[in-house]
């Protein structure tokens, strides 16, 4: 009987260890496509038709429409049970009026939410987009900014929900992910500058990379008859490793045409300096700027949600999710070179 008891005990121990190892192995081989598929064209469309509606009055920095926009974003995070890194229930990083050169601006807000890393919570991946637009024209036309940058805003919200779905199933990212919606981009990159220069909620030395999304819902003239594409800017300027990871992720999951035309140091458009990633790049933080290029409705009242290619927006958002997933779950943070 004593031998039988010892044998049973050993069998249970082996079974227990085997079960534990299988769970660990499953967690390691989990396919992120399961969660990427929660990012859908229909959900992106539903959100954008609200966010880029006349109700938000063009989301001009400091104006009532911009205040409605930040409430919309905050409520989406609350509904998704994604917390703020600032304080419980406080999603707004206040930027005082004195920070803006324009005396008409009474102050504005960035919106921050995050998912805490399971193994390396102090290392942070930022996914950013600007929440503002150019408001109402002198003739009374509302500039809804569906592509600029409503597309980036709703993409982040869907990406955040995908990471939250993974976390709920025990597959949260190893590193923390900050979902950063910045204000004041259209008048001088103020929101990202304030975060980076004045009040980085997570120390810049712990910030691994910034994936910045600014206009990813349309097609420019160069690609009108082609496959889905994105312009990538800055991916190789501070970290060759980041560029290689980005390329490999695209080949593995998305197979979009990645166009580096605007990444040229001699590009006359100087897009590398014209969106919010730059305030991280200037602090030696590797960046990727995702962009669909300029179209005829850029900064016009005709930039409306009915002109967005939602299938393209879905695929592009999934690519950014996969890139963030890889950066967040690698054993070692990417190197700056």
From TrEMBL:
GO terms for molecular function: metalloexopeptidase activity. Residues 110-322 form the Peptidase M28 domain. Signal peptide: none annotated. It holds the Pfam family Peptidase_M28. One of its GO terms (biological process) is proteolysis. InterPro entries: EF_Hand_1_Ca_BS, M28_fam, Peptidase_M28. PANTHER family: METALLOPEPTIDASE M28 FAMILY MEMBER (PTHR12147), PEPTIDASE M28 DOMAIN-CONTAINING PROTEIN (PTHR12147:SF26). This is Peptidase M28.
């Amino acid at each position: 009987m004593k031998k039988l008891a010892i044998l049973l005990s050993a069998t249970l121990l082996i079974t227990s260890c085997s079960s534990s190892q299988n769970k660990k192995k499953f967690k390691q081989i989990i396919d992120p496509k399961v969660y990427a598929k929660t990012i859908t064209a229909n959900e992106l469309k539903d959100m954008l038709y609200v966010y880029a509606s006349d109700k938000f009055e063009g989301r001009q920095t400091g104006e009532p429409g911009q205040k409605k926009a930040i409430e919309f974003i905050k409520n989406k995070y609350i509904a998704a049970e994604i917390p703020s890194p600032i304080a419980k229930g406080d999603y707004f990083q206040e930027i005082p009026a004195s920070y803006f050169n324009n005396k008409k601006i009474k102050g504005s807000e960035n919106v921050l939410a995050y998912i805490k890393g399971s193994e390396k919570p102090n290392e942070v991946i930022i996914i950013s987009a600007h929440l503002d637009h150019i408001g109402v024209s002198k003739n009374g036309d509302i500039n809804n900014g569906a592509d600029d940058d409503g597309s980036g805003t709703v993409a982040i919200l869907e990406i955040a929900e995908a990471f939250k779905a993974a976390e709920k199933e025990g597959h949260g990212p190893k590193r923390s992910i900050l979902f950063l919606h910045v204000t004041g981009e259209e008048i001088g990159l103020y929101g990202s500058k304030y975060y980076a220069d004045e009040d980085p909620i997570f120390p810049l030395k712990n910030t691994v990379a910034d994936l910045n999304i600014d206009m990813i819902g349309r097609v420019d003239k160069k690609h009108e008859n082609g496959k889905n594409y994105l312009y990538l800017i800055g991916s190789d300027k501070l970290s060759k490793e980041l560029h290689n990871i980005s390329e490999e992720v695209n080949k593995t999951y998305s197979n979009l045409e990645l166009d580096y035309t605007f990444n040229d140091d001699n590009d006359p458009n100087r897009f590398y300096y014209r969106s919010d990633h730059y305030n991280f790049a200037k602090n030696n933080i590797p960046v990727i700027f995702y962009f669909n290029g300029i179209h005829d409705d850029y900064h016009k009242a005709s930039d409306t949600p009915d002109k967005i290619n939602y299938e393209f927006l879905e695929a592009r958002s999934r690519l950014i999710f996969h890139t963030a997933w890889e950066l967040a779950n690698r054993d070692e943070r990417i190197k700056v070179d």
